Amino acid sequence: MQPLASVILKKGKEESMERFHPWLFSGAIERIEGAVEEGDLVSVQKSDGKIIGYGHCAIGSIAVRVFSFGENLPDDSFWKEKIEQAFRLRGKMGLTDAPDTNVYRLIHGEGDGMPGLIADYYNGTVVLQAHSVGMWLVREAIVEGLKAVLGNKLVAVYDKSAKTLPFKANIEAKDGYLYGASSAGEVVEYGNRFKVDWLEGQKTGFFIDQRDNRRLLSEYAKNKAVLNMFCYTGGFSFSAMRGGANLVHSVDSSAKAIELTNENVELNFPGDNRHEAFVADAFDFMQEIKNKYDLIILDPPAFAKHRNALSQALQGYKRLNAKAFQQIRPGGILFTFSCSQVVTRNNFREAVFSAAAMSGREVRILHQLSQPVDHPINIYHPEGEYLKGLVLYVE
After folding, report:
1. Mean pLDDT over residues 35-60, rounded?
2. CATH assignment of 207-394?
3. Which residues contact residue 59 at a Cβ distance below 8 angstroms, ignoring those fewer than 6 apart?
4. Does residue 299 contact residue 337 with C-beta atoms inside 8 Å?
5. Cβ atoms within 10 A of the Cβ of 267, count?
6. What is the tens place of the pLDDT at every residue in 240-295?
7. Are 259 and 279 in contact (CB under 8 A)?
8. Residues recognised as catalytic
9. Topology of the domain comprising 78-188
10. Residues 6+ apart with CB under 8 A from 389
């Protein structure tokens, strides 16, 4: 094995790593000793030469993604042990053998001590997404760890990293099966059936992180007229139907998303005429819907993927929520979300507050929502809290 390169920190810059933060920024580095390429395993050392951790080097402001703290070099069993820990947590939360759910996130990047890696479990198929070159380079070891930990629960592993790897790395990755073979299939979440397309769909094929919020929505939907904006595959739509909604309208700008929504509604409620779907721009659709809906869901894609887009994103959230406040029926319920990591909980709440003030209506917070237990937040990495939501009562 080639000797590891060493990343030497500037004096006094080891504090964040000693607090177990997994991101080492380029400004903290004094020098690098040894040849290094993106994705290489490196040791991180204090200015006095003491090793304080190991990680994968990267191009950009985050220079090292640290996955092991301390002096001991990770060995061949390291990734298997990490996967075991992640699987054990999901088991304790009742997800790995749930009778009515067979889809969950198995590995959630920094939240599971594996920065740069996502792994979602879909009824036997694990879909991987590497967001760092280092994790992509150890994908075969990850597969071996998954096989050892999941045993006969694992049918296939599909790598969907081609579009998530850093473009500066010039890695010509191709999506494909690393183990077994499967086809886009069907999963169950709290008894609802979904068609999942991990080959062509967004993310790994489905937005698992809204599972508990979909179930909460069903508790509010009885006898309501419901509008699901940015519906994607319709999860909130048939959760509302399951809860007894009188009418559900699903809206997305993507014709493919509307096709999937209609297929999923038909899977769960064949021939049910309570549902109708529309291909339309969200802001255009919400121009003239006054007093038509008792319950509105706003779950847009990330408005800000980078900090330099934060101000524009907050304006977008304010405009979108203002439309809902202006249009929703008196006594209505608004489920509103942000999945932008750079938008903090306070940022989002202030944007929604401003939208409510613009509408002049009385608004009360019923719930403050976040991501579910299989998307854990590393307490040393608060940046991992990306999903924010509010359930609001509008007089």
Report:
1. 94
2. 3.40.50.150
3. 38, 166, 168, 169
4. yes
5. 15
6. 999 999 999 999 999 998 998 999 999 999 999 999 999 999 889 998 888 899 99
7. no
8. 339
9. Transcription Regulator spoIIAA (3.30.750)
10. 213, 335, 336, 337, 338, 367, 368, 369, 370
